[in-house]
Amino acid sequence: MQTASRALRASAGRTRSGFGAAATQLRANHTQPQPQAHTGTADASPRTTSFGFRTVPEDSKESLVKNVFDSVASNYDLMNDATSMGVHRIWKDTFVGDLRPGRRGPMRCIDVAGGTGDIALRILDHAREEYADRETSVEVVDINAQMLKEGFKRFKKTMYHNTPQVSFHEANAQSLPKEKFLDNTYDLYTIAFGIRNCTSIPDVLKEAHRVLKPGATFACLEFSKVNNPLLAAAYDQYSFSVIPLLGTILAGDRDSYQYLIESIRKFPSQPTFAQMIRDAGFSTGADEDGGAWTDLWGGIASIHTGVKV
Amino acid sequence: MLTAPLVQSSRSTLLHHPSFSLLGKSEKVYASVARRLDRAQHGYASQTIATVSRSILRPGTATPAALSLTTSRKYNTGSRLPPAYPGHIPLSTLENGILAVGSAVMAFLDPRRADMVAALGETTAGSTLVKLRDAMLESPEGRRILRDRPRIHSTTINMDRLRSLPNGTWGRAYVGWLDSCRVTPDSRDPVHYISDPELAYVMQRYRETHDFYHALFGLRVNALPELAVKAFEFTNLGFPMTAMALGAAVKLKPAQREKLLSQYIPWAVKCGSSSRNLLTVYWEKRWEQDLSELHKELGVWNPPA
Q1: C-beta atoms of A6 and B223 within 8 A
Q2: Are residues B107 and B136 in the same domain?
Q3: A163 annotated binding-site participant
Q4: ipTM over 0.85
């Protein structure tokens, strides 16, 4: 009976040595650029990036993140509900509601890092319910096959299964294959709670810029900086105490949830990320809440939007 | 002779070495203290020394690489303590409480979540581990276990050698039980939530010897015999988790529950409370011992079939 623990762990797709990458000293804070970003001769020392609070070689971040999401995929929706106490649904409803997909006719949307299909489903439902639009389509792109499988399973329970309105693609957001994802194709690019897991955010933004039509919208929903100190203290306490415990209890996996909450802390602040979006060639609103970004729940989550010029 | 000076010096050393420190003193120092304790024959003074010295000494152990606990990754938890040993996750009182409640619920809903049973044991252990460690220190065999810190793993136990032992020996019985229930000794989670490294080892030893209790009584790994072993462990060792585990009896079929209440629990109460504390038994040194003789020595007997 007690040997099932090993089997459970193995079936979750992770080994205990999954985080074996060497951890060197941390950067002092997230706003500092990557140490090697501006040097031309990077061959001597390996390029590093952050994996939560650890610093890992850039090449290994992708597989480390893959391990995390292989492990969390089957419980992903349950854990989202448990750790955010259901609030993530409100955030996603707000995110899609503000974008109003289908208002100006059928759209071709691409939802990146959209594995389990939360956003894609909301887009299609919104277009259908508000605008009687059954031509809008969403291409769900994710680097992790397990997450895509969960998304496919969810869509099978809906009316969009086996229709051209939804399709699933396994691809890396930093380098979408050019044959499949052509330039200037999409009317809407969404990425929700995925961009902080990518190794290089500028590359993701560059690809977003490439595949969007001129005048189309880039929208990103992501955890962000809480500026109110009281709320920040309570949020930190909750994040670091309760969430890993929920991961331990519900999913039997503390490390993945430890990574997830640390990766939230490492993500750039709202103005910094807005600048990165502008650097990729998008035009955004002013650098304030309500302009280039909209804070949700005090900044716990934030919606960043940009328009391709 | 052993009293004031040794206690004084040990106490001052204690001030400079926080009890969570893993700066290992050499095994020789521990062994010499153990020898003095043996000679002092369990007087009060030697127990004081034991209390003081064991909190600063950590005997060296030869732990095979496969058994070394997971990386000493620093966990950002509500507790501000640094990890005291690899794999240690320090928890604040609130976190400990949350985990205790959560793991109790989860273990009840899905008893196959061995990690939840383990977490429940650790978060509710409290003073039980201190009592057990003191009991180990009072027995020569227990002291040897605390010094050697043996781990039970397929790399530390030679299965083939055990299989070659004659029938009726403890080693043969153990390996026969492993084979017939199709379990391995490798499935134990490491200890995460106990702050003191020595108490963490006591907890780890309990977890790893759990299978020995099964094999000692020939109880299989189904729900009913598992609860019988838990009942025995409660009366013998005293972990609150083992008593809580009996709450899972509501999930048994009525006939099984009847058997548990009328036969296994009385057996556990009588046997567990009258026998020797089984954590003081150095099982790995007794492979060749005859099983029935072992029963007599420990003061245990098989449960009703």
Answers
A1: no
A2: no
A3: no
A4: no
